[in-house]
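Thread: Newbie trying to understand structure tokens

Hi all, I'm a second-year student working on a class project, and my supervisor (Dr. K.) asked me to get a predicted structure for one chain before our next meeting. I've only ever worked with sequences, so writing a 3D structure as a token string is new to me. If someone could post the tokens and maybe explain what I'm looking at, I'd be very grateful. Here's the chain:
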Amino acid sequence: MTQAMSFRAAVPAWLLPAAAALAAAALALPGAARADESRSAAVPLLPAYKQECSACHVAYPPGLLPAASWQRLMTNLPCHFGTDASVDAATLKELSGWLSANAGTAKRVRRDPTPPPDDRITRSAWFQREHREVSAATWKLAAVKSPSNCAACHTRADQGSFNEHDIRIPR
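---
Reply by user tm_fold:
Sure, no problem. This is what the structure looks like when written as tokens:
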């Protein structure tokens, strides 16, 4: 007997439509949840953004910060976390518009759109929650150096993917 036949034999005929609908909903939910969580990575990186920002660090997906944070960061590029990251006016306008349009799309950021202290992704409540099990010693490893070095552990960070299955803690 096939699986479908055994299912039909176990469920009364009058319940089949409802059971089928419930089964379809159950199968759809995990995929929908994963799609929503990865939405921040789903936005293709603007080539100018990737070129400018990944010259020094991972080009963080815009969905990881609310729009207000991106606006302040772009306004303060001459003093970007201790470095002059200035760009020409046209590039600034292009990057600022794109970041604002795609800001805060990650579910965890939409849930709490309050800008993190100092507009740092690593100081946001969701980041702290996600990394609470990482020891202080791990952050100090030569290969890691700081929480902002996502690529040290997230092997696909350069592609905007921070999936737990792709984490490799350096030794």
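A couple of things are worth pointing out once you decode it. Confidence is low (pLDDT under 50) at residues 2-8, 18-40. The CA atoms of residues 141 and 171 lie 8 Å apart. Feel free to ask follow-ups in this thread.
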